Amino acid sequence: MVVYAGQGDAHRSLSLLWGGPDQPRPGRPGRTGRTGPKPGLSVDAIVSAGIAVADAEGMAALSMRAVGDRLGRTAMALYTYVPGKAELLDLMHDRALAELPAGPDEPPVGPDGLPVGPDWRAAVTGWAEALYACYLRHPWVLQISQARPVLGPAELAAMETLLRALQPAALPPQRLRGAVGALWQFVRGTAAVTAETRGAAAATGVTDEDWWLARSARLAELAPHFTARFPLLTALQSEGGADPRERDQEAFRTGLAVLLDGIAASAAGG
């Protein structure tokens, strides 16, 4: 299930994301004979409830009615604050990314005018690990396509943090764009596979152990010379760790290190 961000009204979505002056203001009872929205309901509360629904039940369960039920309100009561599900999704996405740390301050500049200071590999690793953990806390975020960005402050801040971390590497603009894209997509792709692996048993009703046992036995019958045919694959698979979570974490760290080695080589090549 792929969901595209930015499908709501551009004016309202960006105003809600950036705190524009046209955000809805709750009315006060007793004025002009009308009563405003009940106290306690706000954009922040609605976004928090939306995230809670998506975290617990997945993207498919997210609806204005489900969010309203969680808040003890009707779906109609939410529309005073958020125009619809499309705008809510943008707000939820940006709120999730707001959990990421801000990262280091601007690095100092050396005599040659180039940034110096913190180890850029350590800074990028910290950024990647924080984003990876955020995706696994909120796996529904991975279903939101990056084809059209939300353009919220937290999303842009996450990009700015990565660019700041990479600044001491002094990559040319074209290589910097490639490095940023590769890093973000590596973290996102790895997190997606990990999240899907963790959710497979609940979604299918079959444990990973049972799934592999059934197929391994049948594969052994159909391909008795599997090891001879695929020796390198067999050797690689035999090196896997026992704990799937440890294996996933190790694969993430190793892949990230290889990617950073490539960026370092690119930076050294000028």
Quick recap of the structure?
The chain has 270 residues and is mainly α.
Tell me what the structure shows.
This protein is mostly helical and 270 residues long. The chain has two domains: 3-97, Arc Repressor Mutant, subunit A; 120-269, Tetracycline Repressor, domain 2 (Orthogonal Bundle). It contains twelve helices and two strands. The protein has helices at 10-18, 43-57, 64-71, 75-78, 85-97, 120-137, 153-166, 173-204, 208-222, 226-229, 231-238, 244-269; strands at 3-4, 144-145. Strands 1-2 form a two-stranded parallel ribbon. It is flat and about 65 Å long. The model is unreliable at 25-34 (pLDDT under 50).
Keywords:
12 helices; 2 domains; mainly alpha; single chain; flat; 270 residues; Tetracycline Repressor, domain 2; 1% strand
Give me the strand/helix succession.
EHHHHHHEHHHHHH
The CATH architecture of the largest domain comes to Orthogonal Bundle
* N-end to C-end Cα span: 41 Å
Give the helix level as a range of percent. 55-70%
Give the overall pLDDT as a whole number.
Answer: 88
CATH class of the largest domain: Mainly Alpha
Biggest pleated-sheet summary: 2 strands, parallel
Could you say what the CATH topology of the largest domain is called?
Answer: Tetracycline Repressor, domain 2
Number of strands: 2
Low-confidence stretches: 25-34
Number of separate structural domains: 2
- CATH homologous superfamily title of the largest domain: Tetracycline Repressor, domain 2
Could you say which overall geometry the principal axes of the C-alpha atoms support?
A: flat
Strand content: under 5%
Rg from Cα: 23 Å
Helix and strand content put the structural class at: mainly alpha
Helical element count?
Answer: 12
Strand order of the largest sheet: 1-2
